[in-house]
Write a structure and sequence with these properties.
By secondary structure, the protein is mostly helical. The protein is built from seven helices and three strands. A three-stranded antiparallel sheet has the order 1-2-3. The chain is elongated.
Length: about 200
């Protein structure tokens, strides 16, 4: 999507700017290359954030077989193979008036904003092709299982465990307790906490 922040005195310029970005982008090859490298760097850095690794494992399991399983930043291999032609094709397929919501907030007059937006986007028409439709989500009636390797550590008379992918999440194991069940309970609580934290940020 496209977003723009400005002073009210530059309101008209902002509308022109957004219209040009949405309707007439040029996608310079050099800029596309720069954005690819930035996105690849972010994907690489994500591996150092255990909470993001856990979140992606959760979505890969819950939405297996559905497009929603894909990470927001994409996969390294996919981003590496992106070309300017892919970006142009994506824009033509999804950036269209029947798939767009324009929202304006701030110290503005709603009636005037509506007139300004309609005037600027009057020539924008939807292509004859149909919008892609997401397949319905399959409801899982059985318990989902995710295999997570754990490392057990013995320290004096205490035993602890952790996952190499989530080193900050440790759990202690009481005498006679199953390490696998204790790990499953700990990671389930961690994933639910991460999911709740993600929802609260939107």
């Amino acid at each position: 999507g496209v977003s723009f922040k400005t002073l009210t005195t530059h309101e008209q310029l902002a509308y022109d700017f957004v219209r040009d970005l949405v309707m007439y982008p040029t996608f310079p090859a050099a800029r596309v290359g720069d954005m690819k490298q930035l996105q690849l760097s972010e994907i690489s850095a994500k591996a150092d954030a255990p909470e993001l690794v856990a979140q992606e494992m959760f979505f890969e399991a819950v939405y297996e077989g559905h497009p929603m399983h894909r990470p927001e930043l994409g996969y390294e291999k996919t981003v590496n193979n992106l070309t300017r032609a892919h970006v142009v094709a994506h824009h033509q397929k999804y950036f269209r008036p029947d798939n767009t919501i324009i929202a304006v907030s701030g110290d503005v007059n709603p009636a005037n904003v509506l007139l300004d937006i309609r005037r600027r986007f009057a020539e924008w028409s939807a292509p004859p092709t149909e919008l892609p439709v997401l397949p319905p989500l399959a409801l899982h009636k059985e318990m989902l299982k995710v295999e997570v390797p754990i490392v057990l550590v013995q320290a004096l008379d205490k035993q602890f465990g952790f996952c190499p992918d989530l080193p900050e999440v440790w759990f202690d194991i009481e005498a006679g307790e199953s390490p696998a069940e204790r790990a499953g309970d700990t990671f389930t609580r961690h994933l639910r906490a991460q999911e709740s934290s993600t929802k609260s940020n939107f």
